Structure formats: structure tokens, C-alpha cells
Amino acid sequence: MVADKKRKRAEGHGKRSKATGATPKRQKSNAGKRVTRVDSLAWKSVEVPEMFDDAEGFYGLEEVEGVDIVRDGDTVKFVAAVAESDNAENDAEEFGGFDDAPEETGAASDQDSSPPSTKPAAPVTSDKKPKPQKKASKAQKKEKKEKKEGEKKEKLEGEKKGKKEGEKKKAAKVEPAEADPELETNVFAQAADLAEDEDVDMSQWAPLDLSQEMLSSIARLKFLKPSAIQIRAIPEAMNGHDVIGKAATGSGKTLAFGIPIVESWLAKRASNEVAEKRQPTALILSPTRELAHQIADHLKKLCAGLTTGPYICSVTGGLAVQKQQRQLEKADIVIGTPGRMWEVMSTGSSVLGALRGIDFLVVDEADRLLKDGQFKEAEDILKALDRTAPGEENDDDSDDEKPRHHRQTLVFSATFNKGLQQKLAGKARYNLLGGTESLEYLLQKLNFREEHPKFVDTNPVSQMAENLTEGLIQCGDLEKDLYLYAILLLQPSRRALVFTNSINTVRRLTPFLQHLNLPAFSLHSDMEQKARLRSIERFKSDNTSTETSTSTTTSSILIATDVAARGLDIPNIDLVIHYHVPRTADDYVHRSGRTARAASAGISILLCGPKEAVPTQRLIAKVHAAAAATTNTTSRAKKLALTTGVGVHTIDIDRRLVSHLRPRVVLAKKITETAIAKERGAREEDWLKNAAEDLGVELDADELAQAGAWKGKGSGKKLREKEAALVGKGEVKQWRWELRELLAKRVNTGVSEKYLGGVDVEGLLRGARGEFLGQVEGLGL
Ligand SMILES: Nc1ncnc2c1ncn2[C@@H]1O[C@H](COP(=O)(O)OP(=O)(O)OP(=O)(O)O)[C@@H](O)[C@H]1O
């Protein structure tokens, strides 16, 4: 039985668990079993498929075994082994966690969550099923590591001493901290593997004055030097200051706030404060669910190298709230989206009480928090955190009189509006009194501990990654599908991320590209959370789909709305395509920032209709102009902005070649749109039938045929849809067959023997067949 609990509860009705197999409970004795509450069952993380790299469980998804679901009149009951429910009751009192192994934990924090029925305060156990071979190799690795550590212990001691004596900058080689054997089974495989690696030179971190334990953890991640934002923001935060940090996308902002938080937790742990006061050290607010999970994963990876780490949990919508509430009770670092955070804070006074004592409040992607209706919840959270006693309301007008509290506030983004930036940098009057729903207003609400938070801006003039290449392709409004396909073929990439401005476009483009044998996945906010996470995991996995006969093209494509624009850190996205032009300059920065992250390079391409090209150029020129004017840059885009006022260079795509792709695209579009229209038609018909049933009237065939008929705005589209819905199965079959044939052939460019398609695209692009595209390196960017 796998959670999404609600659904699986229903599915599992009257069945035995998958572990014990077959017999329905009704036929068995109930001896040793007891009816129990659903949240007291021994839920445990769903095991992550091998192909996924999240070694800790599949986000919020849980499963439970050995539970029978029986129906009693109108209620459904859960029958579990007595030992389990007994423990559940004890557990409920102490809130030690009930799960076999929660998926949302930091390293040591899993201690709390071993199965209570076996070891209440047990050493940590892996939540994975035993894998004998792997375990054997892990044991060998451990032995090897211990030997290595033994040999180096003396050296390490020497270095520690050296550091104390003020030789920090010379403390070059940092060894992983000695592992606590009890905890070792709980750290990520990835971290354990990293620990095996050669010595890592960490001397460049020395000026940040981090603890030895932290340096060891960073060494495991193989981050040889801090990024610019880390160099500047970490010391400020560790010295107790409020920080507003601005740095380009992909420049390591997460650890810029993550490292000081974990350092603070380590200091508390050393003084036993962690054990005495069970309350979180930090609350991190994230604008999207995916980003919240990603931040949690990032911090867990950092903490995987610690002998004892903080308990890290994410609190986001779309996943079981009960479990998140349980985890919150023992959390040290909480990462939440405003909506779900406010839900749990406003319903559980103990959670709220504990959160009032946090040492750090982080607002990541602060400017985005103002959008998408999250502002209200963010504001409610801030107010609730500042209340001194439950029930006491903070009057908006009384902000000036709010007592300064002890917590530090850290605010990060790649984009702050220019006026605000100047104010923060002290170049304009520093008075954070903007209109409501502005970032200034939010900053005011944050109730900083200091009057002037430290403003750290590592890229005063540019928000874009240095190694990003940008381009624009102009095409007809109705030709975007064709050009999208052409780009994906001509500019093959490891991973491509396609941004659209509408959920319906995501729904249409995904099957459209799949019909063209491209491995496309969807991501938008109307998807179930489970499906959202799965899409990301599939996109992340390097497993190129077997359906892709043209697998020499892009190996994985995510079609997304702007829900994917902020913060998502997926390795090897080397191509971002703006199918719809971004609505704002900031959106352009963040979308494009999904590529060219850390030290890697990437390409961002805008698809513009005739009327879009000029305003889009202007928008992007705005992004680049300041940078071009003030920096001695080699970047093509910035030079362009400076010399021509044009934001981005236009890609000279081979139109003749593109036109040869048209027949494929036309067929794929027809197949896709027919399927969508039929589905929509069926839904409308169902809706009408249900409504008629409710009213107790009968509908005749004509009325049903009229279902969905529309006479107002958009009626032309409706009509086309209606026609598409009427296409017969035979015709669709014929189109599919034709498309298959076309995809199996190479595309004849009409000039000698130059072809695209089939299996040899890469060869063609690399010049195997000459000047086919005019360029052999993709689009010539
Ligand atoms: N010091 C470092 N050395 C090398 N890589 C690093 C370092 N710090 C962070 N990274 C890696 O860089 C990538 C980007 O980091 P992160 O997601 O924190 O960027 P960001 O600045 O928050 O980006 P965005 O603005 O898009 O949210 C991550 O994969 C992270 O693991």
C-alpha cells in the first residue's frame, strides 16, 4: 500500500499487504491485531527506484505493510499488529516518530525514526531493502576508510592544532571527520562514496572560519572553493547579521545561507542546547514545492558528512500533512512553502510556539514570494512568528514598535528590482516603506533584527550567469511547434527545459513531442504533487527512453510553466527554450538560470512571433545594458546590448531545413490535438450527462452533440476542437502510420544527400555529411 495515502487506502480495501501476500484479512483470525488510526500506522518511505538519485525516499510518499483495511458500515478501519499500535500510542505521547525511516531526514536525525516496534531509540537503519552485494562492498569500503582514517588521524590532529594557532590559511588538507559507526549506515551512499575519494584541498575555505566538521562535510561534496556569494554572505551571517543576498542564478546561494544555519546548529549541539530545547533552528520559506524539496536535499547532502546532523524536513502542499506535522515536532531545519507552512502553523499551536524560537528565518527567492497569491500566507507567517503570546495580534500599524527579536533574517534572490537594490546598497534613501505587495513592504514585514541588514550583492550589474549563451529565433505565431522541434533536433542537448506561459500548452506540447519520438515530460502546478516529482525525477535520470528512435537528439526534455523557473538545480540542463516569451525581465533571468549553473555552460533560446521580437529584444536589452556599460565584458550578448541596444542575437536558423520537418510536425500536431479534443469532448459530455442526471432530465443525441458548443470569444478554436473530436479512429491510425514512416526516414533537404532524422542526426551535425546545416555545432551559438 503506497501513499498518496488516501488513494491507496481506497485501493487497498479488503486486501492484505503486499509483503505478506495473498489472503484477505476477512478470512483470517484477528488475533494479535488491533484497529488503529491511520496516522499511527507504521508508514515508511517509498523506496526510490534505482534510476532516481534521491537516496532518501521518494519525497513525501509513504507505504505501509501488514495492514488490513476492513469496512465497517460506512467507515473504513485499519487493522495492524498489536505491537505496532501499542508503539504508536507510546509514540504519539513522546512524538518520537513512527515511521520505519522517514524520507525527510538529515543524517543523525533518523535516529528518532527507527521502527519503534523493534528499537525505540535505535541506532539508525537504512530505509532501503537489503541489497547483499551492495552491503558487502560498503563494508569493504568502510574497512578501507577506517584504515585510511587511522593512518591520517595524527596528521589531522596536527592540522587542527595548526588552525588553532592561527594558521588557518595553511590548513590545506582536510580529512573527513571520524564517522560514528552507529550513524554510518544512515548517511547517503553518495556521501559515503565521496568520503572514499582522494584528499581534497580545502585551503580556499579557510578564511570563512568554518568548523572542522563543516569543512569535512564540504570536502565530501568536493566543493573546492566557496562561490562569491558564499565568501561574502557566510561570514556576515555567522557574525550574527541579517543578510540580504543577491547573486546570479546557479551561484550557490543555498549554501550561502545553509552553511551558517548548520554551523549554528552544530554550536548548539556542542553546548547540549539541541537536546535540551527541542525546537527548530531555522525556517526557510521557498516559493515552490520543488524548490523546497531541493533545498532540503541540498542541506541533507551537506549534513550527510556530519557525525550527527540536524533533522531536516520539508513542509509543502500536495503531500500528506499528518506526516509533515509529525516531522515538524522533531525538526531542526524546516523548509516550507508559505501555504502549507501557514496551514500547519495556524492549526498547531505547539508548532507555532516552537517556530517562534528559531534562530534563522530565510526567505529564498524573496521577490517571487510576492507573486502567485503567496504573499498573504507569507505575511501571516511573519506576523505569527513575531507574536509574543498566542492570540496576541500584531497590528499592521504597530510595526515600528515591534520588539527586535533574536532571530537573524536572511533574504536571497538573483533579482531585486533596481530601485530597491539602490536603496539596499545605500545609494538611495533607505526607507523600506513601499506599497503593500512590494518587496520593500515584505522586507519591512521581516522585522530584521538590525536596523540595516547587510546587503551583499556579488553581481551589482548582472544577474545572468557568465557562461550563458543567448539567442532568439523569429518565426510565425503558428510555427512555434515547428521551430521548437527544429531546435531540439539541431541543438541536441543532455537536457532541455522548455518554458511556456500556460498549463494547456504544457499539456499539448508534451504528447506532441512524444509523438515525434522525443522524451518529453510535463511540469505544471495543476499536476498532482506525486506526478510533479516523478516528472522531475524522470527528467533528471539519464535514462533515455527506449521509444526514442532518434535518440541522438536531446536525451530528456521537460516542458514546464514558470513553476520550474525559480531555483531548480538540475544538473546538465544545457538548453533552455522560451516557447512563450517571458512576461518580465526577472522571469527571463530565472528561466535562463536553469542552465549554465555553477561552472557549466548553457544556451537559452527565445522563440518569438513577429510581434514579440521587438519588445522581447527591448526586455532583454534591459537585462544586459547595465552590465555592458559597466563591465569590460567579452560576452556577446552584453556587447550587443551596448553597441546596438539589442538584447540578444538572432539565430540564423536554416529555414529550408526547417521546412523539411514540417510534414512530421503537421502530423504530430493533428494526432495530439485530436486526442486532446476527444478527451475534452468526453469530459464535457460527461459533465452534461451528470448535470442532467442531477436535474432528473433526459438529454437526446442532439443536445449531447451540442455539448461544448460555444458562441462567444474563442468559438473558432472551439469549432476546430469540435471538428477534431469528430475525426474517426481510422483516420488517426492512418496519421500515426504516416508519421511513423516519416520518422523512420531521413529528412531530405533537397540538396544532394543531406538528411536529417533516423538515427544519424548527431553524425550529420558533427559534419559526417558535410555542410548540411551550414554549421556542424548545433545552431552555431
Ligand atoms: N562552493 C561550491 N562549489 C561548487 N559547486 C557549488 C558550490 N556551492 C554550491 N554549488 C553547486 O552549485 C549549484 C547551484 O547552487 P544553488 O542551487 O545554491 O544556486 P542558486 O544561486 O541558489 O541558484 P538560483 O538563483 O537559480 O536558485 C548546485 O548544484 C550546488 O551544489
SSE order and pairing:
Elements: H1 5-11, E1 33-36, E2 44-45, E3 62-63, E4 68-72, E5 75-81, H2 82-94, H3 132-164, E6 173-174, H4 181-184, H5 189-196, E7 200-201, H6 212-221, H7 228-238, E8 243-246, H8 253-270, H9 273-276, E9 282-285, H10 289-303, E10 312-315, H11 321-330, E11 333-336, H12 338-347, H13 349-355, E12 360-364, H14 375-386, E13 408-413, H15 418-424, H16 439-445, E14 454-457, E15 468-474, H17 480-490, E16 495-499, H18 503-515, E17 520-523, H19 529-540, E18 557-560, E19 573-578, H20 585-592, E20 602-608, H21 613-630, H22 636-644, H23 655-695, H24 701-706, H25 715-726, H26 729-744, E21 746-748, E22 755-757, H27 761-765
Parallel strand pairs: 8-13, 8-14, 9-11, 9-12, 10-11, 12-13, 15-20, 16-18, 16-19, 17-18, 19-20
Antiparallel strand pairs: 1-5, 2-3, 4-5, 6-7, 21-22
Helix pairs in contact: 7-8, 8-10, 12-13, 12-14, 17-23, 18-23, 20-21, 21-22, 23-25, 23-26
Bound molecules: adenosine-5'-triphosphate (ATP).
Domain Helicase C-terminal: 483-641
InterPro entries: DEAD/DEAH_box_helicase_dom, Helicase_ATP-bd, Helicase_C-like, P-loop_NTPase, RNA-helicase_DEAD-box_CS
Family: Belongs to the DEAD box helicase family.
Q: What is the general shape?
A: globular
Strand arrangement in the largest pleated sheet: 10-11-9-12-13-8-14
Mind summarizing the main beta sheet? 7 strands, parallel
What percentage of amino acids are in beta strands?
5-15%
Catalogue the ligands: adenosine-5'-triphosphate
Could you list the spans in which at least 5 consecutive residues all have pLDDT below 50?
1-31, 48-60, 82-142, 152-197, 389-401, 428-437, 544-552, 629-633, 750-777
| C-alpha end-to-end distance | 50 Å
Instruction: Determine the number of helices (DSSP H or I, runs of at least 4 residues).
Output: 27
